[in-house]
Each structure stands twice: as structure tokens, then as C-alpha cells.
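Dear colleague,

As promised, here are the two records you asked about, laid out in our usual form so they can be pasted straight into your sheet.

NAME FIELD: protein one
SEQUENCE, THEN STRUCTURE:
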Amino acid sequence: MGVDIGKLQIIFAMTLYVAVVIVIGLYYAKRASESSHNFLIGGRSLGPWVTAMAAEASDMSGWLLMGLPGVAYWFGLSDAVWTAIGLFVGTYLNWLLVAKRLRTYTHVAGNAITIPDFLSNRFKEKNKVILTIAALFILVFFTVYAASCFVTVGKLFSTLFGIKYVYLMIAGALFVVAYTFIGGFLAESASDFMQGIVMVFALTIVAVVGITSAGGISAVVENARSIPGFFEFFGIAQPVVKDGIQQIGQNGMPLFGEAGSYGLLTVISTLSWGLGYFGMPHVLIKFMAIRNPNELGRSRRIATIWCAISLFAAIAIGIIGRMLFPGALLTQSDSEKIFILMSTDFFIPFFAGIVMAGILAATISSSDSYLLMAASAFSKNIYHGIIKRNASDKTVLYASRITLVIISIIAMIIALNEESVIFKVVSFAWAGFGATFGPIILFSLFWKRVTRSGAIAGMLTGGSLVFIWNLLIKPMGGIFGIYELFPAFVASSIVIALVSALSKEPSQEIQDEFEYVKSLQQQAE
């Protein structure tokens, strides 16, 4: 009976959270329905705090509370910490270098409200090739991204309530779709602000209570060092597995083999996660949506602090969890449940429900962004930009919502596999965006000589190489085992530079617009 009451308390706490999210969606429903501009970018009306928190919350998603702690629990410090360092540096540089110039340039370049729009307008396209390529890559990778969020929801609720994963995954996905369908970008951004607060609170409180329960930091470090390679920057733990399940020794403790090496190439590979930020449409659009570009400096400071605290706490949870629950999670997929296990063990059910609302917060804040970006890629860029250019704004708005539903169904089908490792799903989509859009965004903002041909060649090279490297080259191992984002990003950059240098220089109109944006940037500074 006590267990049932406990579950009811968790459900009640999480229901309260969901109710607040729904109220936010309903509050913004009218404004979202006024125009596609409001639905997709909120009329460029975000303040600095909402911009910062919405960008980070939509970026980090459920992998921050489940995927990253799971990596630390399974492999130890190195893989998780080098990933976190790359992400932290990438976050800061993206806000510092890209945010203000992108906000200014998108406004000047035809008041673009999506990344494909901006790239197409930047090169004064008439036949919309760049726009089509960009929109198609966004559709593909955001569908994969949304699937990772639905996996998170399914794992969360099936772990808590023992109900079949598939049912709860679909139920969670339907809620996110309904919420995004109603409220659009403004609801997504406003709720992301709240969800960013919930996420950092949940991570911090679980990490602090975990350290206390473990007997202090020194006890956690001593235990971590007792596992070969677990607490090293240039080594990695090697769980002894059979059929994917970690084996248990005679003393009842999970078995680890000798520490694996974590060399310079692997460090570079892991740090390259930071390169992805320059090409993340769901982050870049938050830069574009702020009401005043001069407020982006404050947003950068807020976002950087949030990122540092959240990443540190997520890694700590995995390390602490391995000490407190050494044999509780015996597969890599199950290791991503360590945050849930610690929350339910440490806190009374109602408070545990509030803490675990952090996972729900992360998932909602990300999946609504992903679905909205994918919907805009089709409705605004392909449907309105190519198929039916004379479509009314209301028709574009309807197309956005219909596309959102279709993409969600595809993402749910991808998420049907309960054994999906969230971190791996996210890493593939992250590489896709980073390599497809990162280089061309940087070249477009900072090099006047970049050409339309260079942009097309670079995007196709980056996006396609992510698939080729991940599926065909990476399985060869050795030096080819590097994270696909790094070689794809480098290859895309080289191709953009070479093709641009070999092709006819941009028109005077394009160059004049670039210089005008540059002058506005200098005046603002």
C-alpha cells in the first residue's frame, strides 16, 4: 500500500508540473495563431533571460539528466568530462562569436526567421537549392533528435511505474505534440525558461545529496579510483560484459577489466562535440529571436554559468551513482536510469516527483524545439518557399502544424526500440547538424568571399559524410573510430573554402550587404 501511495505522490508532483506547462501553452495559443512569424520565431520578442535559458534547455535535452550521467556511470570520468569540456567551450564561443552577428544578419537578410531562410537569403538565391538542402537535412536530423526525447520519456515512466515502455513513450510523445501544436515558439521558449530552472535545480540537488549519502567527496573519489580507469582523464573503465550485461563477481560487485587507453585522438574526438554548437538550428534560432541584440551579452553570461553547473552536476551523479548503486544497472542502456534511481532513493515520493520533473522538463524543452524546427523547415522553407509561394500565412501555419504531427509519428516509430542508448542517438543527430550547418554558418557570417557554390558543396559534404563515417568508416576502428562530427566538420570547411576560392566571387549586392552587417556590428560594439 505504501508503494502505491508513493507512486501516487510522484504522479501528483509531476502532474502539477505538466499542468503549469499546459497553462503556458494555452496562454500563448492566441498569439501563436496570429501568424506563422509568431508561431515559428515569436515575433523576435524574447528577453535576455528567456533567450539564454531557452537556448540551453532546448539544447541539452534528456541526455543531460540521463545520457551524460549514464556515460559517467558506465565508463567513468574521461568520456563524460571531455564531452562536457567540449560542450562548455562550444557554448561560450557560440554565444560570443555567432549570436549577435547572426541576429543582425538574419534581420538584414530579408528578415529571415529560419536557418534555411537565412542561408538562402544570404546568397540571394532564386532557385532555392540551398534552402531545399538545408530544410531536408533539418527534417532528417530533427526527427532523429525528437525520437531520442521520446525514448527518454518512455524510459522515465516505465522505470517509475513498471508499465510497458511503448505505451508510456507514445503517451509522453502525444503530450509534447499537443503542447507544441497549440503554443508554438513563444510557449516553447517561455516554458523552456522554467524548465531550465527545474533542470539545474534537479541536477544540483541530486548531486549534493548524493555526495552527502556517499560520505563526502573524498569517499566518492577513493571509490572511483578503485575501479581501473574509472577516475582518469586519459584512461577509461572497461565493464566486463556478456551479451551486453555486466558480469558480477563472487563478492557481489560488478566486474571491470583493465583500464582502456584514452589517447589524444580520442580526446580530440570527444572535445569536437563543441563544434556542433555552431550548427544547431534550435540554438541559433534563439539568437535570432531576441528582441534586442545588445542584450545577448547578458544572455551569454547566464547561459555559460547554467551550462557549467549542469554539466558538472550531471557527471558527478554518474560517478556518485556507481559508488552507491554499483550493481543495480548492468547494461549500458540501463545505466542511463541512474538519475531516476538516485532521486527515488534519496527523497520522499512527492519531492522525488518534483526532481524527476527535471527529466520531463528537459525532454519537453528539447522535443518541442526539435519538432517546431522540423515543421518550419517544411512549411516555411519547402512548402511556402518552393511548392506554393503564394500560400497565405494561415495556410503556412496549418502546414506547420500538420508537418509537426507527421514528423512526430515518424519519431515515435524510431523510438519504439526500448534498448536505444540516448547518448548514441543524440550524438549522431548532433554530428549531423554540426557538420551540415556549423561550417557554412561561420563562413557566411565572417567571410565575404564565400560563394553559393561553396555553401552547397560544403553542406552536402558535411551532412553526407556524417552518415558515411558513422555507418561505413567508424566500424573499422583504430584512428577511424573518431567521432564523425570532427572529420565531417573539417571536410565541410575545406570544401567550402576551396570551392568558394575556385568559383566566381559573390555579386556586389551580396558583398555590400555583408559589409553593411559588419558595420552595424562594429557600431554596436
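NAME FIELD: protein two
SEQUENCE, THEN STRUCTURE:
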Amino acid sequence: MADRHDLSTLPRLLLRNAREFPRRAAMREKDRGIWQSWSWHDYHGQVRDFALGLAALGFTRGDRLSVIGDNRPRLYAAQLAAQCLGGVSVPVYQDSIARELAYIWSHADVSVIVAEDQEQVDKVIALRDELPHLRWVVYDDPRGMLAYKFDWLKSFADVQAAGRERAAKDAGLLEREIAQGKADDVAFVCYTSGTTGSPKGAMITHTNAIATARMAMASEDFRIDDDYLAYLPMAWVGDAFYTLVMSLYVGFTINCPESPETVQRDLRELGPTQLLAPPRIWENMLTGVLIRANDAGPLKRRVFEYFRRVAEQLEILRADGKPIPLGLRITYALGQFFVYGPVRDQIGLRRTRFALTGGAPLGPDTFRFFRAIGVNLKQVYGSTETTGLVSLQPSAEANPTTVGRPCEGVEVKIAERGEVLVRSAGIFRGYLKNEEATREVIDAEGWFHTGDAGFVDPRGHLVVIDRAKDVGAVADGTPFAPQFIENKLKFSPYIREAVAFGHERPFVTAMIAIDMNTVGTWAERRSLPYTSYMDLSQKPEVGGLLREEIAKINETLPEATKIRRFLLLTKDLEADDAEMTRTRKVRRRYVAEKYAPVIDAFYTKETEVELTSSVTYEDGRTATIKSRARIEDVETREPAHA
């Protein structure tokens, strides 16, 4: 039997929660417009039945189970069930193409795949012959599955029924299995983004997970009555840490939205008390707010802009530790009633005590906007290899230029060339089947080499500049950090993605992917017809719009790093085409090779260049599209304001 006081593994935390607060909500799921709840007692029962069902199917200690799909309670329960039996969870991105899935499932020797629905099962069927270790595929949603007749395919309900039969014969089996689990057993294999090649499987142990949870608790006000919305990809370490570590450690409730398309509506309805979102989500939220403000009548628009400037002025003073004049405080209080409160309510953050952004740097303008309207937004820094957490900003010290203080129990030092090194109990065990890569990032003294360039400021906050390999200098020696410039560009609601170039070049240039929705709305208001992304992006009027946006951004940049030339891409940057990772990070090396003719043309007098774009479909098929795009010059004079 498991020792009640031994909480060294995630399954033991589940037993604790089911025993000590059985009626508290552990999971909620929005289904057909109605929130349905599992208590901790229910959650334990779901995990128990599925774990014993897996045991009946021959799943044993050390086996690996993968889940694919949107955020669903049963997919989380399946991962925990595997861990109860001493197995390992291997979540994958639900929008991965066939080539990526085949690599991960084969590399991880996955023996069981739990798929959300028919769409995900079809992906497995297409790859079945490439997966020699795969024994069973289990589906959650039975819709559309009636005609599927494979002896290796089972429903989630059937596996649980087999588990209940097994329990009837041996009631103590699950607790005995949990008792055998050790703290240094691998709990997850989370595959990295793969910015520099094939993704690597980071092995995260129960010790890594629980030690990191303790660090988080010491740094932030997590509460048992918190509500968290689980909408981020399950394969991202940030989601795994919240839903399968912090929820179990603290006991708060995980809420799963009805679908990716309803996340914004479900967010407003739930009003979570805490939120984790990568920069892209905050940028999208801001874009939505700005679009609604621009679409409002003249009076409302002027009121919004006035109070927005007031809030940002107050936030800058507050961040700098300067006194806030009485008049500004009174005006800000009025803004709470007229603007800030309604905006927070509209985006679903009315109850949010704190919100975290991580995964990549967030532009300072976006950061200040949310802080200014009363959202306690703070930066958090971590990576898959650090179990998602290194540093976190205290609420009173939130600042767009740092990623906070190292958490309690985390050591940080800066190497000679400026690389950030980290040592803690949260550092992963190593990369699956890749000892050489493990030795490259973990040195003999246990320091993990993050690959990020940064420094520690006088207050003890960690400042991350960019990926160490991406930091360079323009031809005159001025430091050049492309991510900093790209974040500035993405503050514009008309820009979805940007890639900046300038290392060892005479000036800075940028490739830009427009935001189709925002630019499309702008074009429609001006009766500007278009047929596709390609057609819209190459309209002279759109080029003029983006030229003005870049000119405004240039006003905030040092002279040597102002953007002098740009090109509007004829398609968005896509993870399926290997231009981005699944967490929306630019794969710079690949992009630089793919768009080499564009980069060369930037630094000649050419005004047009041919683009060859490859489009990758889910089944791995590719198509090639050729187009021509204009290279635009940015004037250095004051931009004309529309």
C-alpha cells in the first residue's frame, strides 16, 4: 500500500487529493454548451478504471503512452493513468503533420496512443505501418467511429470497462502499482520545439515535476480554489506543468473549453483566476481590443485612446518607482469605470489575480497595455528542459524588460559569452536516446546551458536578450537582437509575424506576414477588393499601410537598427512548412536558407523578388507556389498618420 505521507510522485498526489478533498472540482469540461464537472473523487475513479484497463491490455512499467487531441479531461486522465502503472506520458501537438508524428511516436517507442476523435485516429491509421511498437489505439469521442473495425482499436469506455473487471478481481492492484513508483521515474517525455532540427525528447521525472511545483508555490499565490483554463497544446511543457503538476500539487480546478474555436467565449464565461498564455495569445487579444476600438464611433474611440494613454503613463511611472500625481490617479479611477473594467470583462480577465506570459519574449508595448488596464500580467521564464520554470516576476516588480527573479531553489549564472546557465532540481534527466545532446547542454557541474543570451540586473532580475546564437551586430558594430525588433513590429495589429535581418549588414530589413483578419477588415472598410492572402498582401495600398506602421515603429528604435527595407510575404509563416515551431518560434536557420534570395535582394537595389513557397498538407504531401513580391523602402521622415 502507498504511504499516505509520501507525496513524491504525481499519482500519490492524486490519491491525496481524492482522500482529503474528494468533493472539490478537479476538472470541468464544456460540452454542448454546458460545463460538466469531475470532483477529485470522480477524477481518481476515471484514472483508476483506465489505468487498470491499460494493465489488462498489457501496459507495464516503463511503457510509453501518447495522447493527441484538444484539451480533454480523459486525455489528461490517460496520461496520469499511465504514470500510475509506472509508464511515461508522451503528449504530441494535435496539429502536427504526418512526418512529425511518425518521428516522435517511433522515436519514443510509443505502445499506446489515446486519440481524441475520428480525425486523430485517421492520422494514426495512416501511419500504422511505420510504428512497430504501437499495440493499441484508444479513442475518446465515439462519433464517426462505428465503421472502424480494427483489433487494435478500442474506445475509452471499453478500456475503462475492462479496468472495472480487473478491479473486481484485484481491488488493491492500482495502489500497489502506485506504491512501486519512484520519485526518479520518468513521468513525461516532452519534445522540444525543434528550432534547430528534429525535436528532442526531454525526460522529466516526478522529482523534476514536484520540485518545480514547490518553487512555483514559493514564488506565486496559487490557491486551491483557483480556476485555470486549459487551452494550450498538451504537448507544450507549460500546459503539462499546470494541468498535470500544479493542479495535482495545489488542488485547483482545470477547465477544458468546448473547442479551440470557442476559447475566447469560454474564457469570458469562466473568468479564470489565473492564466498562462504565450505572447501570440496576448498579441491576438490586444489586436482584438484595438480592432473593436477602431470600429467604434468617433466619441468612443477618442475616449478609449485618451484613457489608454492615461493608463500607460501611470504604468510607466509605477514601473519606474516614481510618485503618481493625484490628478493622474483620479483620471485613472475614472478610466476604470469607463474603459479598463469593461475591457477586462470583454476579454475574460475580470477575476484574474495574476496572468503569466512565457515561451518567448513579449513586446514591451503589449506588456504595458495589459498592465495599464489592470491585468496583473507578469513574465515567466523557463524551458522544456527546466520543467517550464526558472524565474518569475513578483507582482510589485513586473517589468517588460526582465523575466523576473530566479525562483527559490534555482541557481542562475551567466557564462563568459553571456549565455544563461541554470541549475535546480527541476533540470530534466536528459534527452531520450541522445546522450551526446544531453552532454552538450548539461555540464559536469550540473549546469544547464539554455542557449539564451542574458544578464542579471542590479535588482537581481534575469534579463534575456535573445537566443545566444541569434544576437549579432550590424556592420557599424551596433548590437542587433532580431527578436527585440520583431516584437516591436508585432505590436502593430496588422502584423502577424516578422523576421528581421541585419547581422553584419549595413542596415536592418524585415520580412513581414500580415494579419489576414485585421488587414482584411481594413481593406473592406475602404472597399478594397481582394481574392486571397497573396492578393491582399501585394496590394499597393496594403504596402503603404505597413510602410506607415514600420515608420512609427522606427521612431522607437536606435538609428542604426531602424528598418530600412521590408517585404510582405505572400503566405503566412507556418509550422507545417518548417518555418515556425509548434509554439510559434521562428526557425531562423531554415528561414534564412529558404528565403536567401529575398535577403540578398534586400541589400541590392532590387525592388521585386520571386518567392517559391512550399505548402505542406497534413498527410505530408507538398505543393510549390511561385509568386513575385515587392521590396519596399521605409522613409525616415515622420510617418503620415491616417
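A couple of things worth noting about protein two: The longest strand covers residues 622-633. The chain has three domains: 10-221+232-258, 277-350+352-467, 472-633.

Best,
R.
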